Amino acid sequence: MTSQLFFLVGDSPSTARPVPVNVEGKFDDLRRAVALVLHVAVPQGLSFHKTEADTDKLESVQDVWSAAGPVAVRVDGLAVQDPQGPPGLPVVGSFYEIFPDHLGNHYRLFRKYGHVIKTVNMGKTNYLSDSPEVALVALSESAYFTKKISENHPLWGIKDNTAIFIGDTETENWRLAHKFIPPSMGPKAVRHYTPLMQECVRSSFPIFDELDSRGEAWNVYQFMVKLASQTIGKFAFGKNLGHFDSVEAPAHPLITNIVNMLSLNKKVTARGEWYRSLPWGDSAKLKAVQKTVYAQMKEAVDDAPSSGIANLPFGEAATRASCVADYLVNAVDETGSRFPEGLVLSNMIVITGAGYTTTSALMSWLVYCIVTYPDCQDKLLQELIDYGISPSTQWTPELAHGLPYMDKFVKETQRLHNASFQPGRTTKTEVILPGGYRLPANATVIPALYAVHTNPEHWHDPFRFDPERWDTNEVKNDRHRAAYIPFATGARGCIGFNFALLEVKVLLSELVYRYKFAREGLEAVEYDPEFQLIRPLNFIVSKMTWTPSTTGSRPVAVLGAGVLGRRIACCFVSGGYNVHIRDPSAEARRAAVQYIDENKEAYTKHLPATTLTKDHKFGSYVASELIDTAVKEAWLVIEAVPEKIELKIDTMAELDHKAPADCIFGSNSSSFKSRFMLDKVTSPERRKRICNVHFTMPPKIRTVELMTDGETEPGVFPFLTEVLERCGMLPATAQKESTGFIFNRLWAAVKREIMFILAEEVSTPAEIDKLWRHMFQAEIAPCRLMDQIGLDTVAFIEDNYIQERHLNGAQTVDFLRANYLAKGKLGLKSDKGGLYPSASAIPSPPLTIVGERTRANSPDHSQDHKEEPALYFLDVGFGGNCKSFSDVSTNGKILRRDPSTGLISTIVSSQPAPDGIDILGDRIFWTNMGRDVNARDGSVMSSKLDGSDIQTLIPEGLVTTPKQMVAVASQKKLYFCDREGMGLHRVSLDGKEHEVLIQRTSEARDLTKWCVGITVDVHNKKVYWTQKGASKSNQGRIFRAGMEIPPGQTAETRSDIELVFGDLPEPIDLEIEQETGMLYWTDRGEHPRGSSLNRGFVDGKKEEIEVLARHFHEPIGLKLDAERRQVFVTDLGGSVYSVDMDNGAKTVLHSDDGCYTGIATVSS
């Protein structure tokens, strides 16, 4: 036998290791030998290649042996790699990337970084996977993996090596526990306890009946905790916990303390070892509650009833014991030895706690699924009837497990809503996982069950709840065996799964047979991110006649991402509903998401107090190209597709096939009754959930008109009315079908009469508008509005009325077409004008504010009018809004002014004196001067436009008082001045490559060297900056130099610095207009030259300085908007201005008690 050298692709060939090769041996034996040497967990995934770049495989042992070594080894065809993950923040690491929605965020991170990811939270490093292949390897006790609960493990806070679930595998205690405890929960023992399950659930009926008679809704999880723990109390220690003595009966103290223990453990372990070691707070509470639980459990075990099974072999004892405590105290093994007394309490706590917490959460999600997913409740009930279930039925395991739809329903619930989510294992040595991921020794790896169960590579349409998938060949025979592991797998899999499955099937069957459950309220169901298991917090049910769609985390789907579609989406997002936008245009999708980013805060102005509570949260929102993705879990779909009836008919038909059965379809059509869209929708139940939902133009006009399709279930309208009012809309319901709904009939009559007046030559558009404005004291005039809508759209809509009412169109649409449309006069969209000549047409948004859209081929994508930009500006924190001087250093904020409403919202708060700001793409960059201007405690920060994902680019200790900042997109660089640091700095967008470009002096008291404002002339490769001098001293100057330090020189010695302007009052921030070479700057110096906005050419065209605007209150920030010929200015007096670049006219956009510095813009 000879040897060959092998190395893993991804590693250097120099790492190759020798492996004996038996030329006569089998290929799989060679794989196993190489895997053993290279620490590869699954040998079958290995392939051999001549070189690391070679993709052709060596297919035989002879090929491998004869290859010129070293032989390159791939794992599953891939190079080995270290798992990647979010970069994290100082101290907290990935905490805010993951919490509070750890399920959703882990799923997102798997899509971004791969099937194994690395996270570091509060100093704890974990590796998580959504791969069934990895899960199978990790959960198998082997040479590479075991359950060893280290400080990185999720159970670290409650580790106890005397207990089966919360202790290490490789201990004698675990061996004994694993020997004695499983028989007490095996199939024979579970049969023994089946009557107990039935007894417990039926004891709850009087309580649920009383709640129903009161008409009261109830929190599902709270009552499922009572029900599951009532069952486990009888099972574990033979005690009636009294949970259903009355409606108000409290949970037993042992139960509440176990819940508290698990919740505290989650909090403590999620926040790091430093938090666990604190002698107070949650850590101290955890220790105290653990002590209490042990004392209470000792009392329960001591009081447990005995069934006379002393010294019976544990197989027989398990089927005769009164409870598990009775069994553990009295049963013996084959040697006659009992379970050690010292292990009884800890294992009883695990059995009790794990038993009822998992079952209560699972029961809650089962109830959630029957009220969320269409027809499930009815199918379950029908199956019970078909199998002859009645109030006198005595349940057996065979009967419960013999209900096929129940079994599929439970499996699908556990797949999508499994209570357990992160069983942890520890690597014994370095190991290469499937996919080529390398883990170090002593690493904690967690198969993320939720992500495994929804891995799109293993599950078709993974987020669709479909119990019938369990009958398909794909799931029954073809799926990976670890693609569904609700109870984990391997030697440390859940030993109580037999009991749990039978328990939930018996409990759910009894409840479904007796009750019809329905969701109560519209609040999205949230899970508890700070609990050891996945449990719903706010899931409320009751008994209702009409069962509305369940909302929860399901989205509202909006079909169309144009001007109106994005506004509809923003309404729901601001009201707290998740939204999924669908549009085939990538640009429309991008613009829609950006619109919601920038305007969702403004929409909250109209929310009712019942919605806008202190705990109010925005809904999530995404946009996608495919309709399947958008509607697959939607509870409401609003179609805003073009006004073509054939298209709307096809859209409704497609939705009928792809949306959930309980989903409501709303047409935003302003022209067609929804009944005309139902030609291909045949189901009577579906037609009951279709109606018109016609938005106007929020947020300015918030009316929404609802109208039946002729078959709509009446309960839909109060339900939607409540939803819309929650979102700040003003809904009105037409009592019967009506073309034009309510308001548009009035508006259609006005338009019709205008056409008559014009056709009969009675008056002119200008005269009509003049009378209208005066009579109704209105800003909006009808002829102007018809031009804004588009005369082709006016004619198109009137055609519908003519056809329906058999009207004569000679003096209306016929006149309009002959005299306007045929001549190309369409209104504002045409350079030939409309009712008004083109030259006098007033610029305004291209869409109507009364609900009629332009007849473009896409719903509302017209973007001819450029809206004002959103303003992002800084409150340095020194203003009158700071109530205490001690708060000044943390009172800084980033504010946003909404361009359409003028509302001001806080994006980021608690900043130490922010001064400079710029925006690039979807990120804000800003400087903080820090708490002490004489200390190097300044910083440079970044965040997303909504204030999330805050990152520190330059931490404290490197700069003193960073001031104005400018982002240069072409270089991916930030430039800023350091005032007391007396220099100009440059840094990459990610905080790397920080360099000093100019250093004026090291004497901080020389105020003439203080560098404040900065701008970059990219075209001429120059940087300009201000040195303000002493306050009000007229010593201010503006300099320039090259963007790069000349060769052979330093930041201190560079010789290319030029004086541009001198003897200025006190120049602050500046910006250059690249196209003209005009430099603009603010000056906070003494009047009359100071407190001004100034400009001057820097290329020698003119030498004089022009004061463009005066009489500010110490202006600081400025931002050019050359496209709209305006300059935005902020001042320390708390005002934001717009200054006309042509005439210097100054407009106050906002004023309050703030103290404003830098400003930036984002165009809509």
From the structure above, extract its key features.
1164 residues; alpha+beta; 8-stranded mixed sheet; 5-stranded mixed sheet; heme; oxidoreductase activity, acting on paired donors, with incorporation or reduction of molecular oxygen; oxidoreductase activity, acting on the CH-OH group of donors, NAD or NADP as acceptor
Strand portion, in percent?
15-25%
Overall mean pLDDT stands at 89
Largest sheet: 8 strands, mixed
Strand order of the largest sheet: 17-16-15-18-19-20-21-22
The radius of gyration computed from the alpha-carbon positions, rounded to a whole number of angstroms, is: 36 Å
Number of helical elements = 32
Give the fraction of residues assigned to helices.
25-40%
Computed structural class = alpha+beta
The geometry reads as globular
Low-confidence stretches: 839-866
For the record, give the distance between the C-alpha atoms at the N and C termini, rounded to a whole number: 72 Å
Strand tally is: 46
Pfam families: 3HCDH, 3HCDH_N, p450
InterPro entries: 3-OHacyl-CoA_DH_NAD-bd, 3HC_DH_C, 6-blade_b-propeller_TolB-like, 6-PGluconate_DH-like_C_sf, 6PGD_dom2, Cyt_P450, Cyt_P450_E_grp-IV, Cyt_P450_sf
Family: Belongs to the cytochrome P450 family.
Domain 3-hydroxyacyl-CoA dehydrogenase NAD binding: 556-734
How would you describe the overall organization of this protein?
With 1164 residues, the chain is α+β, with helices and mostly antiparallel strands. The chain contains 32 helices and 46 strands. The strands form 11 sheets. Strands 17-16-15-18-19-20-21-22 form an 8-stranded mixed beta sheet, sandwiched between helices. The chain has a 5-stranded mixed beta sheet with strand order 5-6-12-9-7. A hairpin with a 6-residue loop joins strand 24 (892-897) and strand 25. Helix 7 packs parallel to helix 21 (497-514), helix 12 packs across helix 15 (341-372) and helix 15 crosses helix 18. It is globular, with a radius of gyration of 36 Å. Residues 839-866 have low confidence and may be disordered.
